[in-house]
Every structure is written in C-alpha cells, then in structure tokens.
Amino acid sequence: MFSNTAIGLLSLTALWLNPASATEKSDTGCEVLKLTFPDNTFSPKDAVYEYESQNFWSNNEILSPACVFRPTCPTQVAEAVKLMSLGLTSFAVRGGGHMAITGANNIDDGPLFVMSNLTTLELTQDKKSVWVGPGLDWGHVYRYLGQHKLAVAGGRLSPVGVPGLLLAGGVNFHGNQRGWAADNVLEYELVLAEGKVVSVTAESYPDLFWALKGGSNNFGIVTKFRLATLPSDHIYAGVYSVADIPGFLKAIANFSAFNTDPLAHIVPQVIAVDEETTIGGAILFYDSDSDPEPECFRPFFDLPSIGNTFQKQTLAQFSDETGKLVTPKINDQFIAGTTTGKTYEEILEGVQIVNDVFLAALPELYKVLPVEDRKLISVDWQPIGSLWEKASKKYNPGGNALGLDTETKGTYIAWAEVVEWSGDEHNDEIFKWIEDTTWAIGNATQKAGLYDPFYYMGDAAGFQNIYDGYGAENKQRLLDISRKYDPLRVFQKYWPGGFKIGE
C-alpha cells in the first residue's frame, strides 16, 4: 500500500509535469492536497471552507483561498509543506487568526492551512509547564490553567491567538516578572521546510530556539509550544479611566520611570471619542489577590476617575474584559513605534510628543471617516524597562532575537496607533492617514532625540521594517539561521504571510 506522501508525490508527478501559472499551481496544489488528505482538504463548496475562510478576527484578513487544509497532526503539516515545496506553490498558515495585516494569515488563490484542530492543552505531570497547540487563543489557555490555579505569560486579550504572540516576542501582563512571553517557551514542536518534525529546545537546537523568540514564521510551522507555568489564583485588575489627559500622561511617565514592583503592569491608552472628547484609560494589572489598591498605581488613582473596573478577579475573567475593548469582524489597523528615555522628563516628553502629534492629525482622519463608521481611534503605550529585561534574562538565559538594551537606552516606551472602522469605502484614505501620522510621530521623536527603531511586531503594520529594529547583528543572525534550516527558501518564497527576514 502507498503512504499518503507517496500518493501525493505520484499525483505531483502527473499534475505538475508541465509548467503552470501561479493560479494553476494553486489549483494543482489543492488537488494534490485533496488526493493526499481527502478528509482534511476542503473546496469553496464545502461548509468547512466557508467557515474557516471567514474565521478571522479582522475583516482585513478575509481573502479567497483556493482551498482550506485542516490538519489533525504534525505529520500531516509536514507532508503538506513537502508537497507545497515540491510544487512551488504559495500557501498561507492561520493559527489564532488575530493579526490584522492583509495576507499575514490568509491568501488569495492558494491553499490556506488552518491550525483549528491542533488544540493540545495539557499540563506536564509536575505542572511546571503546559503544552499548548497553535489553534488556540489565550482565553482558552487561561480558563484551562485557572482550574489548576496556574497561568502563563501570554496574551492580554482573550481572543489573541497563541502562535502569533509567542513568535512576535509577546508583550504580556507578567512581563516585569517573567520577561517576554517568548522567554517562557521551553520547547517548540516545529515543522521544518524539508518536511521534518523536530523538538526545539535550548539544548537540541540552540540557534532555532533563539530565533523563534521574536523571529516570526521564518523558520517553520510550530505545531505545539511548551510554556512555563506560574502560580495564579486571583489578581487585582481593571480599567481606570480619566478625563485629565495631561495628568494621565504624567502618570504614564511616573510609572514607567519609577516603578519597582514586578507584580505590576499597565497598558495606558488615549482614546479619541469624538471631535470634542478625549479620554485616558489605563489597563491596570497586579499579580496579587491581597492588595486592592497597589501603591505603584497611585499616579493613576490620584486622578479623578470617570470609570473604574479595578477589582479582584481571575486572569481568565480579566482577559475576557480586555478582549471586549476591541471589536471583531470589522476593519482595523495597528501600527507601532518606540521612544526611549533614561529620566522621567525624557519619558514624559516622548509620551507627550506621540500623544500631541496623534491628536493634531485627527481632523484629517475625521474628514474621510464618517462618525457612524468609527469604532475605535486610540494610541497606547507599553513601558519595557529594567525589571522586564532582568526577568527576560533570568527565565531565558540564552536570550531572544529582539535586541533590547535598557542598560544603554533606558526605558523603552513601545506605542501603537489603533484605528477600527466599519465599511470599506474609505480604506485607502484611512491607511494613508495612519501611515502619514506614523511618519510624523517618528520625525518628531527623532528630532527630540527620543526615537528608537524597535517596532513591536505584535502591533506593527505590514510596511514596517521589523528586523532593522533588532540591530544589525541580530538581523544577520536570523537570516543565517533561516538559510541554514531553509536553504531552498521555501518559507520565504512560498509562504508570503508574516514578517519575512528575506532571501
């Protein structure tokens, strides 16, 4: 009897005997997948295709794949990669489906691999780590671990997908305790370009282990992650909202410059409600169930509140609350930037510049985006300081690819513009406004000597150059590792989605 792979190879020989156009190759790729995996491959007439091809958080990702391939095990993923490589066929891979960049996790006229059935969620016997599949979001992970009074350093919004966050580095609630989410990955089950499934640890593949921590999808398809767990029963967390924007910006700088409490984490955000109203809202997280008013949040609590949900709850409950702050199934655009500062004054100046340039540009956005189509217009900040970097080095001594250096540069303040809207009539104008505003903020912070080229991948736009911000040495190291494990450049040429390191 022939194996599935043998059947696929025989089919390839027949179907790809003659040169074909890209469209013909994608159709042929789907035919080969259907012949090889008849129970896992779905065409546009199938209900599974209809569901999976639309199962994305953002409308930006709704495209028209030629077929959907839904594997049930790593071996099937590996065999499918081999078939796509042999047939020179472009394909896409979707994990949680939360990245809002067109083409990041979907494709027109090519096979779409969906990880929906790869949903492993299993604690190890000693409960010090947990295996997590790439088809899950963080809400599922937190609800499962909460039953065991455990947590992991993961996404801050429940609908965020597991693989995208971990491969981007991973800003998380526990950053000042545990570093980046990627620093807490102990093992990867990875499909290489050659169609081989390997276990990547710091011992087995130290170069890949480093590269996967911030290097995106340049090295393979992860079919399982093993994450370090930490104790977590209840926390104090919520959103604290204010109308005093100048005071709010000072509170951001105060926390960023002076906080010494590793249990604390903030995500402050200025939201443009309409032409007349702007409010500040800070997501406040404190990893303890015994302090209902942590002193580290005093700069925020001292401001008069117009809304406050800060309370004792579980991590799963809170990630569900934050998940409601963004709207699914509409158009949205995130775009990233960073300032740095060694003093309170420098940090405050950087935060103020980002805020002021962003708000000054809003009248131009309002001209092209009708009131009824506006869902969210905001800018937020993420402080990453010495506590974060010390935790990163403690839990991941081999380091990651991100290249941050707080000892030299001080505190990084990673900021993100967010625009969410309904309707497609004004997409081009909105995208142009976002890009123009980002360049304006970058120019202003550069002029002030506060600009940094680091763009956090999880908040970045497709046109942003991620790897230059990691530093020349790390960028070259990522490229060398990619070439070592993918010499034919399968994941660069035929898997176009995501932030690519290049050929």
From TrEMBL:
<dbReference type="InterPro" id="IPR050416">
    <property type="entry name" value="FAD-linked_Oxidoreductase"/>
</dbReference>
<keyword id="KW-0274">FAD</keyword>
<dbReference type="InterPro" id="IPR016166">
    <property type="entry name" value="FAD-bd_PCMH"/>
</dbReference>
<dbReference type="InterPro" id="IPR006094">
    <property type="entry name" value="Oxid_FAD_bind_N"/>
</dbReference>
<dbReference type="GO" id="GO:0016491">
    <property type="term" value="F:oxidoreductase activity"/>
</dbReference>
<comment type="similarity">
    <text>Belongs to the oxygen-dependent FAD-linked oxidoreductase family.</text>
</comment>
<feature type="domain" description="FAD-binding PCMH-type">
    <location>
        <begin position="61"/>
        <end position="232"/>
    </location>
</feature>
<feature type="signal peptide">
    <location>
        <begin position="1"/>
        <end position="22"/>
    </location>
</feature>
<keyword id="KW-0285">Flavoprotein</keyword>
<dbReference type="InterPro" id="IPR036318">
    <property type="entry name" value="FAD-bd_PCMH-like_sf"/>
</dbReference>
<dbReference type="InterPro" id="IPR016169">
    <property type="entry name" value="FAD-bd_PCMH_sub2"/>
</dbReference>
<protein>
    <recommendedName>
        <fullName>FAD-binding PCMH-type domain-containing protein</fullName>
    </recommendedName>
</protein>
<keyword id="KW-0732">Signal</keyword>
<keyword id="KW-0560">Oxidoreductase</keyword>
<dbReference type="Pfam" id="PF01565">
    <property type="entry name" value="FAD_binding_4"/>
</dbReference>
<dbReference type="GO" id="GO:0071949">
    <property type="term" value="F:FAD binding"/>
</dbReference>
